[in-house]
Amino acid sequence: MTTIEAPRTPAPVRRPRGGVNWEKWGWIYMRASGVVLVVLIFGHLFVNLVAGDGVKAIDFAFVAGKWADPFWVAWDTALLWLALIHGGNGMRTLINDYANNQLVRTVLLSAVAISTALLIVLGTLVIYTFDPCPAGTAADLLPSFCPVP
Questions:
Q1: Which of 40, 69, 97, 139 could form an S-S bond across to 79 if both were Cys, CB 3.0 to 4.6 Å?
Q2: Which residues cross the membrane (predicted)?
Q3: How far is CA 17 from the centre of its chain?
Q4: Which residue has the higher pLDDT, 25 or 17?
Q5: Percent of residues in the chain assigned helix, strand, coil, to nearest 5
């Protein structure tokens, strides 16, 4: 008699002996970053929407004033990095669970890693290079709070 395996039976996973257990650390990261993200997100929403005049007050001047304080620069940087890495790690888990073809899995994991890294770099550049009063700009194009050259 021939035994047929149940459909969708996952292939056995080969794990190298010794070394770092990346799945365990990914799982721990998701739990720890999730807790920190809840604090960061609700703090962000409170400051931007509740403490001020609501969504209608969020404009260029609001962001410029907020990012003039190093505390908020660090807060938004932590929020950006944790959220993107958390989301990328979640996508990695989904791809590992559902992509059965090794080539498809490799392509998808590479796309997630590249897009996550690119968004982290671009977002960090925006936060740290933001200048509300760039030198050499015509006075009529500058916001009202910038000193007139």
A1: 40
A2: 32-51, 71-95, 107-130
A3: 32
A4: 25
A5: 65, 0, 35
